[in-house]
Design a protein that fits this description.
Chain lengths: 140, 205
Amino acid sequence: MKASNILFGLLIAFTSASVHADMESAQKLADKYEAIAKNINPASTGLSANDGKAFFNREITVKGKQVACASCHTANPADTGKHIVTGKPIRPLAPSANPNRFADIDKVEKEFTAHCHDVIGRDCSAQEKGNFISYLLSVN
Amino acid sequence: MTEDRAKEAALNCLKDEPPQKYVWDAFVRVFHWSLVVAFSIAFYYRESEWDRLIHVYAGYTVAGLIAARIVWGFMKTGYASFRAFPLNPLLAVRYLWLTAQGRSRRYIGHNPAGSVVIYAMLFCGITTVVSGFLVYNDGWLIDDPGYIKSLHYYVSWLWLILVVMHIIAVITESILHKDNLIWAMITGCKRSSTKLEKSYWKKEI
Ligand code: HEM
Ligand code: HEM
C-alpha cells in the first residue's frame, strides 16, 4: 500500500509537467463542442461551467434507479469516485486532479459518447458535453 | 471410483454400433461447454457499466475453468493430457496443407492444427483474465495509464477470432473425416480407427 502511494506520488511529480498540455486538450475538446452547439442552436451563448455542474449532479431515472453522474464520480469530480454497481474506485475526472484525463481528444470523445449512451441511455448533447468539460476545467 | 466410472463410460461407447472409443473424459466435456457458456456471457455483457459485475463474475469463472484445465493437462489423463497433443506448429502447417488437399489423416485426439489453436486459446484466456483483473482493480500494483485496458480489449477480440476459427475448423474436420466432433465433445465417444486413415473424401472422388 505504502509503496504504491510512493509510486503514485512519483508519478504525479513526473506527470505534473504535462498537466498543462492535458488541460489544453480538454479545452480544445470543449471548444469543439462549443462550436457544434452553436451550429445546432445559434441562440447558444457559449459554455457554462455552472450548467455543467447542474448537469453533473442532476438525477435521472435509469433502470428504475435515481442516478446522476455524481453517483459514481462523487459530487466533486476532483475526488476519487466510487462505482455504484461494483463499489470499485474510479480515478478523478477533473484534469487538474488526474492528468491522464482528456489527453487524447479523439479517444475521449468516443468514450464520452459511448459512456453517455450507457449511463443515461442517450447521448449527451454537444452543449451538455461542452458545459461539463468547462465545469471539470474549473475544478481545482 | 473414478476409474470405475471411466470404465463404465468406455463400455458405453463400445455399445454403440459400430463400437466406439471413449476419448473425451467427463472433465474435458464439462470444462468445454462451461467455458463456452462463461465466455459467451462475459463477451455479451462486456460493455455496459450496469452489467460490469456479470462480466467480471463470468470472467472469473473462465479463469477457474482454465486453471483447472491446465492442472488436468499435466496429469495422466489420456487424450486430455498435454502430452497427447504437443504444441508443434510445423506439424500443424503440414496438417493444414494436407487437409487443403483432402488427404490429412484422422486423429483420434486433437489434430496438430487443433492443438495449436487450443494452446493459443488457453494463452489468450490467461492474458484476458489477468488483464481483466488488473483493469477491474485499477491496475492493482501497477500504475497504468490505459495500456492494460487496451491489452484486455485486443486480446479478448483475438480470442474471439480464434474461437471462430476453432468452430469453422471443427465443422470442416467433421465433414472431411466423416466424424461428428461436436457430438463427440458431448458424449465423449469417437469412431475408433486403428490404422492411419486417408480421408473418405479423397476416396470418394
Ligand atoms: C467460447 C467458445 C469456445 C472455446 C473457448 C472453446 C475452446 C476449446 C478448447 C480449449 C478445446 C480443447 C478441449 C480440451 O482438450 O480440453 C476445444 C475442443 C473442441 N471444441 Fe471448442 N471452444 C469453443 C466453442 C466451441 C463450439 C461452439 C463448438 C461446436 C461447434 C466447439 C467444439 C469443439 C470440439 C468438437 C472440440 C474437440 C476438438 C477435437 O476433436 O480435437 N467448441 N474447444
Ligand atoms: C472470458 C473472459 C473475458 C472476456 C472475453 C472479456 C472481454 C472484454 C471486452 C471485449 C471488453 C471491452 C468492452 C468494450 O467494448 O468497451 C472488456 C472490458 C472490461 N473487462 Fe473483460 N473480459 C473477460 C474477463 C474479464 C475479467 C476476469 C475481468 C475482471 C476481473 C474483466 C474486467 C473488465 C473491465 C473492468 C472492463 C471495462 C474496461 C473499461 O473500462 O473499458 N474482464 N472485457
